[in-house]
Amino acid sequence: MNQQISTGKKLSYAMGGMSMNLTNLVISQWLFFLFVPDKKHALVPASLFGIYFMLGRVTDAVTDPLIGYWSDHLKSKRGRRIPFILWGLLPFALVYFLLWTPPIGHEHWINSVYIIIMIQLYFILYTVVITPYLALIPELSSDLKERINITTMQAVFVMIGTLIFGLMGIIVKKGGFVTLGIMVSLLTIVSFAPTVLAIKEKEHKPQPEREKANVIKWVAMTLKNRPFLYLVVSTSFYWFGLNLLLMLIPFWVKNYLNLKVDAVAMLMLPFLGMNVVFFFVFNYLSKKFGKYIMFIITLLGTAISMPLLCTVGYITIGSKLVQSAITMAIIGIPVAGFMMLPFALLSDVVDYDEQLTRQRREGIYFGVQAIFQKTMIGLSIFAFGLVAYIGGEKVATEFGLKLVMVVAAMACLLGFLSFLKYPIREREGKIHLIGLDD
Hints:
This protein has 438 residues and is mainly α.
């Protein structure tokens, strides 16, 4: 396996990060807002939207390990991962567009059936494209620092996608949700096309005796990997908290700041700006002090900073909008670490798994990880619908929205506590398991 890859190939691979992040962020922040802007104008019952989303997560729980397992075993001239991206990309972009075109403009059972089907298809096709895409990371390079460079370049495009996401409030106001759907769908095609065209996978020589294990056994083997469990639990809690924050912003702008949706950009841009600045800082410090220490800082720093949003309105300096923007900038600092570290950490876990099994099983690890993380994102949508409306019947309340941030911070704190015993460390360019091979 090559230790270094060219800048052009890293760039071609990293571009996929733009759409990978953008599609999920836009879904997280705006889909609930489209179908349930408030209980009076909902297109589907507010109490059921979270359930519809959870049904998609159930499908996700089945398809993620299946796609991961399938991609680990695929025999193709284009490799194990690229064919999934190639054949899944256009259907994924089409379904993404259709998510934003509800058939009836008021609450109706047809909207419920429509969104259930579209969400199911979205999660299936997202898995078909993204799980094999992410499983390429450990194969691109075995050098631990080079992987940080790859995931950092990927994070640059994640940030580009996130910056575009930050402007979605303006897009929605000027062109509506259909324009949003068209724009994100086209960007998805542009984002992943270079990966399909430029990345050639290395030759894979499977071990037949290992491949006889079925997907259930492979999932069970994955869950016996102690470093993986620490990592996946911590990142899943973090996604729960981060998704609550992203869902909160349009409601915060509309219901607490009493501004129009285009003002969402005034909160997201400071948040994303600090992401852009500090993920370069996290890149440098991760190489110097190791990924473990910097991810600890990411988890704990986010847990500490999120509740600061609850202080907005109680400070005499500046307007509520200014206070909110400053607070979002502060929260954006530790979140920068989450843009680049989890995939590099999981690549180390895959290397450790190879030491145990003598098999490269990237796909199944990224697939099983997705089960936990997407389930927690689904639960966060359900939790938001319950918590944000506390104290009010038709609209999200100030108390409910601030309570959302407390719940989000607690989730990040649980992620921090879950990661403390993560045992993998880097030493002299190799991974070591603390407590076993010291």
